[in-house]
C-alpha cells in the first residue's frame, strides 16, 4: 500500500480478504504484542495501585508478595506501561485525530448506546468513542508517569518538596480513578460489540463486523486493493 | 536545688511494659477496638529559652536508640547533621536572629523532632495497616515490621519529620522513647538535658510548668512569650516554650498554624469513597447496559453486504 493510500485512513498491515465470509486484517502481530504488554501492565498497575489506594483493598498486596514488594514493583510496572503505551501511541495517533464526523457521532451517543448504528455517520478505522479512549489514555498516562515520578520515594524523594509530593499523590490518585474508568469502558465496549476481541487476539475481524462498525475503513481497504493492480504497484511498496 | 521535674531513677527489677496493643486509640489503615483504659496523656516540654545548644539530647537519642548516623561534612552551620535523617530522630536547629526591636542578636535553638500530634497526619496518610499506631497517652509510634516504605507519612506530616531509610526502606522518627515511657521512664533526651530545658511528665503538669516559665520570661521583657501547642493538629505531645510565641516561624521554620494539608485531607478523605464509587459506577453501568440492550451482534446481512463490497473489487 502506498503512502497516499495509507493517509486515507488505514494502517500498515490492514488488508481485506474476499471470500465467505470476508476477513479483514486489523492489527499486525507486533501491534497485538504491544497492546497486550500495555494491557497486562495496566491491570497489574491497577491492582497494585488499588492496594495502596484504600485500606479495604490492601489485601491485594498479597498478589505481589506483600506490601513492601508492592510498593517497590508498582512504579517499575509504570515505567513498562509508559514505554509500551508510547509504542501504541506512535502506531495509532494519526488515525485517532479528531474529525468533524466524530463530533456528529459523539453527539448521537444515545443512538450508539441503543445500537442504532444506521443513524450514525460511516466510521473509519476508529470511531469517536475509541478516539476518546485513546486520547484519554494518552493524557492520563502522562499525568500518571509524571506524578508517579514525584511520588517515587525510593529514587526521587530528594528532588521534590513535600507540597509538590502532596499535589502529585492527589493527581496520581485522581488520574488513576479516571483511567480505571476509561479501561472499564474500553473492555466493556470490546465485549459488548461482539466480534471485536478477535482483532486483538488473532488480528482479524470479519467483513460483516467491519461493514457494521467501520464501513468507511472497509471501503478504503477495498478501494485501495482494487486500485493497487491498476497502478502496477504491490502492497509491499 | 531539687528539680521539680527530675525523672525517677531507673528501676532495677520487675520491669514490665505498661504500654501495649490494648492502649492503641488509632492504627493506620485499620480500626481498633476502643481501649479499655485511658492512659494519662504525657508531654515533652522543650523550653527554648533555657536551651544552650549542647546537643546532649541529640547524643542521648542516638545512644538510646542505637542509631548510626554517617559522619557528614561541616556545611558552615551549627546544625549537624544538616537535617533529620533516618538515623537522627532529633536535631538541634540553630538560628541567629536579630531582634528588630532591640537590635540584639538572639540565638534561637530549637530541638526538632516528632511533635506527636493528637491528630497525626502521618497516620492519616499511611496505607499500610498497623505501620503507625497512636497510644491513649498521646504517643505516635511507627511499627517498622508493617512499614512498606512508601513515604506517604512524609507527605502527611505537617512538620516534615519522618525520614525514609535508603537502606531498610522504612520510615523513622522520634518515638518519644515509647519503650522508656512504657517502663515508667522519660525520654532519653529529657534525661540528658543539663539545663532542664527538656522536661517530661503528664501533659497537664507540663502545661502548668510552661505557665510558670512564660510568666518568668514575660517579667524579663519577653512580652510575647508563650506555649506552642498548636490546636490545628489537636495539640501536640511535644510542646515548646518560645520567647517569641507570636512568631514561631523564626525558630527554623516552626509552622505558625500547622494542620493536616488540605491536599492530604482530599487525598485521604472523600476522594477515596468518590473514587471507588466512580469505578464501581462504571462497572455497574456496563452491566446494566448489557442487560438492557443485549450484545451488539454482526448480522448475516452485514456479512453479505461486506462480501458484496469486497467481491466488487474482484476482477
Automatic annotation (TrEMBL), chain A:
Coiled coil: none annotated. SUPFAM superfamilies: Transmembrane di-heme cytochromes (SSF81342). One of its GO terms (biological process) is respiratory electron transport chain. InterPro entries: Cyt_b561_bac/Ni-Hgenase, Di-haem_cyt_TM, FDH_cytochrome_b556_subunit, Formate_DH_gsu. The gene is fdoI. One of its GO terms (molecular function) is metal ion binding. This is Formate dehydrogenase subunit gamma. Keywords: Cell membrane, Electron transport, Heme, Iron, Membrane, Metal-binding, Transmembrane, Transmembrane helix, Transport. Residues 26-203 form the Cytochrome b561 bacterial/Ni-hydrogenase domain. The chain crosses the membrane at residues 36-53, 73-93, 132-150, 170-193. It is a multi-pass membrane protein. It is found in: Cell membrane. Belongs to the formate dehydrogenase gamma subunit family. Its cofactor is heme. It comes from Hypericibacter adhaerens. It holds the Pfam family Ni_hydr_CYTB. The keyword Secreted does not apply. Signal peptide: none annotated. Its main location: membrane. GO terms for cellular component: formate dehydrogenase complex; plasma membrane. It comes from the Bacteria.
Automatic annotation (TrEMBL), chain B:
It comes from Hypericibacter adhaerens. The gene is fdoH. This is Formate dehydrogenase subunit beta. One of its GO terms (molecular function) is metal ion binding. GO terms for biological process: cellular respiration; formate oxidation. Its main location: membrane. It holds the Pfam family Form-deh_trans. Keywords: 4Fe-4S, Cell membrane, Electron transport, Iron, Iron-sulfur, Membrane, Metal-binding, Repeat, Transmembrane, Transport. [4Fe-4S] cluster 4 binds at residues 126, 147, 150, 153.
